[in-house]
Write a structure and sequence with these properties.
globular; 299 residues; 7 helices; 13 strands; alpha+beta
Length: 299
């Protein structure tokens, strides 16, 4: 056997071994791109707030411990009342968790993207007896309200903030002192202001608020713009929607069975406001034009 023959044989053996190795490798399942992607674990669900009724006897025995923290603010909001009237209730709704922000216990969404082009808007739900203030679609304030009683219900309507007064007397009864009052309908005499919240619709068409909410909205909402005692631009839009079920159990009592009973999702809120949005945008454009003209004139 010569050297050339031995070299050729070695090469053939080497090529045969390589081909066999390639065949074996091809039979081993290779990870696909999909298999190689590591899926992130699902985000943990936020704890669900539940509610239970607490009878007056138990409520009175624990009253001091509730009042010693921010608990009382949440309890009055959940029960649509104030710190004075909550003591008179036979039973109250109590949440399973007191640690979350107030917005978590109220029905409105924290963001409503369809309102992003509206600088400020205030909305009241008659059914939920709650309000929400949005700035470009972001929730900036929410809380409880008590609207008009059965004999004088607050009309579901699109209003606009007109004039305001830190303290004024009602045109219905001059003995009724209205603090942090913001009128929204000059003819009907409707506005929002500080007043007692018994825990159900009790006013003469106005939207009653706690002092801190009334003071906030008094400073936050924009008044109308007048020229020669004539309105040339509207103030902040105020929408009252829905209907309160007079003669039936208070809607928020359903929270004990269904914690989401009053929840107003963004698409639901949009449905309630959609009919009024074109007019709101039209009035907003008018206000922007008036303000721009005034700004140019002041230069």
């Amino acid at each position: 056997m010569n050297a050339n023959f031995l070299t050729a044989a070695a090469i053939c053996i080497l090529l045969f071994a390589c081909r066999q190795a390639e065949k074996q490798t091809a039979t081993i399942p290779q990870p696909t791109v999909k298999d190689s992607v590591v899926k992130a674990p699902p985000a943990p669900e936020l704890p669900r707030i539940t509610y239970r009724f607490m009878k007056k006897k138990e409520w009175q025995s624990l009253k001091d411990s509730f009042e010693g923290a921010r608990h009382l603010d949440l309890l009055t909001a959940i029960n649509r009342t104030d710190s004075s009237h909550i003591r008179r209730l036979d039973s109250i709704l109590v949440p399973s968790d007191f640690s979350l922000p107030l917005a978590a216990y109220m029905p409105f969404p924290e963001e409503a993207s369809f309102l992003k082009d509206i600088p400020k808007i205030l909305v009241f739900s008659l059914n939920a007896q709650a309000f929400a203030a949005y700035a470009n679609g972001k929730l900036v304030r929410t809380g409880q309200t008590n609207t008009g009683r059965k004999s004088k219900p607050t009309p579901a309507h699109l209003y606009f903030a007109n004039w305001k007064a830190r303290k004024t007397n009602s045109t219905v009864n001059d003995e009724w002192v209205l603090k942090w009052n913001f009128n929204v309908h000059n003819t009907w005499g409707i506005g929002f202001h500080e007043y007692a919240l018994p825990g159900y619709p009790a006013s003469h068409s106005c939207m009653r608020l706690q002092e801190r909410d009334a003071r906030f909205l008094y400073s936050w909402a924009e008044q109308w713009i007048l020229k020669n005692n004539q309105q040339i631009a509207t103030g902040t839009p105020v929408v009252v929607f829905g209907q309160y079920p007079f003669g039936q159990p208070r809607p928020w009592l359903k929270l004990a069975q269904d914690p989401a009973a009053l929840t107003i999702a963004p698409d639901s809120l949009q449905h309630h406001l959609s009919a009024w949005l074109p007019e709101i945008m039209k009035k907003q454009q008018r206000r922007d034009s008036v303000l721009q003209t005034a700004s140019v004139a002041a230069r």
